[in-house]
Design brief:
The protein is of the alpha/beta class. The chain folds into 2 domains: 2-121, Rossmann fold; 159-199, no CATH class. 54% of the residues lie in helices and 10% in strands. The chain contains 8 helices and 4 strands, in the order E-H-E-H-E-H-H-E-H-H-H-H. It has helices at residues 16-25, 45-53, 65-68, 72-85, 106-143, 159-167, 173-180, 184-199, and strands at residues 2-8, 32-36, 59-62, 89-92. The chain has a 4-stranded parallel beta sheet, with helices on both faces. Helix 1 links the parallel strand 1 (2-8) and strand 2 (32-36). Helix 4 (72-85) runs antiparallel to helix 5 (106-143). It is flat and about 65 Å long.
Length: 201
């Protein structure tokens, strides 16, 4: 059985480009699993469901390795679970070397493992470089007198509680505005800011 996995980081992003590639490979719509969530870890509902479903000799297809996840140490562990524990295969469309369905011999396994290790090293190195550049940039900015800190979002009393009730369908926007004592435009601005802050990953 061939399964496709697609992931985007937020609900606003479009996964269609990934789905087109997966369908072209031969994945049927009933076997597509889509998460709209950060790739920082593998605590994703559809991914976990997919892993429970796969059996020996099944294939999981992804458009690119970063759609599987962004933490390469965890990718290596998931790769081990899929290929060694579940005895299934993985095909990464943008990186043909990472296709255990086609490269089942010892050399193919070695190459795939080597590529994953190199990607892990490059990813960790880049993260370290980014942290260093950020630290240097912050130090330079502080030396110029720039002050840092999270932008404060003005919240009327019980904003979070009331907003959650709106999202759950318990309240209408006009009722929420009345309860908060703000204008509708102010409420919508706060809603956008709050959703943006929550979606940062």
């Amino acid at each position: 059985m061939i399964y496709g996995y697609a992931r985007v980081s937020t609900k606003e992003q479009n996964e269609e480009r990934q789905l087109i590639a997966l369908r072209e490979y031969g994945v049927s719509d009933k076997n597509l699993f889509i998460d709209k969530q950060s790739g920082k870890d593998f605590e994703r509902a559809k991914y976990k469901k997919l892993i429970r479903k796969i059996k020996k000799d099944d294939i999981i297809v992804v458009k690119s390795i970063d759609r599987l996840g962004r933490n390469y140490k965890e990718i290596i562990e998931q790769w081990r679970i899929i290929t060694q524990v579940k005895k299934a295969d993985i095909a990464v469309l943008d990186m043909p070397l990472l296709d255990t369905a086609k490269n089942k011999d010892l050399m193919g396994t070695f190459v795939a493992d080597l590529v994953l290790q190199v990607l892990s090293f490059v990813s960790e190195t880049e993260r370290a470089n980014i942290r260093q550049r950020q630290a240097e940039g912050i130090s330079a900015a502080m030396a110029r007198g720039v002050k840092f800190g999270r932008r404060k979002i003005y919240e009327p009393k019980d904003f979070i509680h009331i907003y959650k009730r709106v999202k759950n369908g318990e309240l209408k926007t006009k009722d929420a505005v009345t309860l908060m004592g703000v204008s509708e435009s102010t409420y919508r601005r706060m809603k956008v800011e709050w959703d943006k802050m929550l979606s940062e990953d």
